[in-house]
Amino acid sequence: MSEYIHVLIMLVLAAATAGGMLVATSLxxxxxxxxxxxxxxxxxxxxxxxxxxxxSVKFYLVALFFVxxxxxxxxxxxxAVLFKExxxxxFIEMMIFLTILAxxxxxxxxxxxxxxxx
Amino acid sequence: MVADxxxxxxxxVFIFSINLGFFAPILGWVERKxxxxxxxxxxxxxxxxxxxxxxxxxxxxxxxxxVLTKEDFVPAGANKFFHTLxxxxxxxxxxxxFSVIPFGGQYELFGHHVNLVIADLDVGILFVFALTxxxxxxxxxxxxSSRSNWSLLGGxxxxxxMLSYEVAMGLAIIGIIMVFGTLxxxxxGAMQENFLHWGIFIQPLGFILFFTCAVAENKRVPFDVPExxxxxxxxxxxxxxxxxxxxxxxxxxxEIVTISGILTTLFLGAWHIPFVTDAMLLSFxxxxxxxxxxxxxxxxxxxxxxxxxxxxIWLQMTIRWTLPRFRYDQVMRLCWKMILPLSLINISITGxxxxxxxx
Lengths: 118, 359
Fold this sequence. Notes:
The structure holds two protein chains of two kinds.
Chain A: H1 2-27, H2 35-38, H3 58-81, H4 83-110
Chain B: H1 2-38, H2 59-68, H3 80-96, E1 106-109, E2 112-115, H4 124-145, H5 149-172, H6 174-180, H7 185-190, H8 199-202, H9 204-217, H10 229-232, H11 242-267, H12 278-284, H13 289-322, H14 328-358
Helix pairs in contact in B: 1-11, 3-4, 3-11, 4-5, 5-9, 5-14, 6-14, 9-11, 9-14, 11-13, 12-13
């Protein structure tokens, strides 16, 4: 348990450092605002397109794949730690699991969900 | 109890000062100087105090003074709260992750047990993954809250890229966990005392896969599409200035240091010198008495660890200035169609070999 207190101390110190930098940058430095300057950067032009437009569905797909594959990777961790004790039984079990994972990957691949230039 | 307290404070102060006081400022200079050397330029050499320039080492100080006096700019229409929160979320995990990485072994000093890691967690590697994935939120928030087209595109690219490479990174490392049978980084380090048991010899494919994923997760060249300066100005931190900009920049450098530390611990024998065991080191320093020998061995181990970390930093900087940037579809294809299947194959082969080895 005491090990986690050290992590907490590190997190608090890191937060203090980051917070201190945020406070410092808001206190020091000039503050002059006029309308043209406050515009978002657009290579010297006025922005004509709002950034809040629709974007490609591919990004949602990647987020979905992430959830699926990352959870399956998390299942593999306890298995990997105990691998030497589980022996052949554990290996065969995991190969079945990985085969299902690989079938999922092949399905996604064949459906073209991993192609970015289409 | 008092000795425990002194040990903890000393370790935290040491890691804090070496990361924030040495690596974070010096890496900016290293990057400029190395690019200059590799491109046959003179490089950063103008900042001076009087006549002294000491190969441009005053530049980090000059940069610090410069960014401190810059205006804290928030564009009109941006979400001010999230715009401020984003660099905070990026920097805090970057500083805190190093707390689970062992920078030395375990020693008996004046009858007190010294373990040279700030927090020796049983779930060390998982903790590292948990914290590094928090940085994704900071990057995506920065891109979304700036209300700039460049920032949003950079944030989107970063989100998909970092998520993808997180999966691949998690799977690439399973092979080495199977071999060592633990997630505790100090135990993994201790198991690599024998030179031939270093992770890089046991898991060469795992090393290459993990190194690639780590560079991509860190958004470094050749995977720096989220901040591609020739396409997206500066990507997700286009609208940041002053110390907020520095916070993104610092978190990137600290992530390089952390990744190098993890690579050293998992694959390059942690704090061990090749062909030198802990016992040999202690007997070599016997002239200094039992406690003196332990202190000297400790210092040598810490120096070895950081030498290896600096080697990995140099390697990443060299890659940075050698390779051109990948296209975005190439980055994603490399992850899902190359690294992911290869890491699954790596797990199967590792399991098969281990099974036959034990039998």
